[in-house]
Design brief:
single chain; 183 residues; mainly alpha; 3-stranded parallel sheet; 7 helices; globular
Amino acid sequence: MMGKQAVESARIFVEETGISDSLSAEDFLLQREEMLQKLFPSSELMPGASRLIKHLHAKGIPFALATGSHRRHFELKTKRHGEHFKLMHHNDPEVKKGKPAPDVSLAAAGRFEGGPVDSHKMLVFEDAPLGVLAAKNAGMAVVMVPDPQLDNSHHDAADQVLSSLLDFNPREWGLPPFEDGES
């Protein structure tokens, strides 16, 4: 359900868990929102994300965050990491059609300085299976860094699967290599 719009995910969750008789999708979302308000402000970056963001910025390689998260959730999750997110050209937490539709990926491709970037020249880093499908549906290459508990059957659509961003080798994708000691 990662990558789907909240109401859609909530409906699936309450139906699949058999609790739809005692808890509506809307009530589930209200309870979930209380938890997220407490948890998101302490969100950590994925290991290796800081190094990758700083490297891309230092090498003048444009990059963006394409998210289907609500703006309030995005702001809560990124609050502690403003120095990283200010390096990005844009983010678009208000895309209406959720993943696996290509909308969020195409919106990011269309907002780079100098005009839209050809989606076939983009590399996407994604943790969610639906995000991988969204990027692939947009014609983009995808490096997946999934949760270790995610079943391997969800990895098939990705061009590369890594256990951590620390394992990413920019050279494999035609990008400038990390400098020695880059952290």
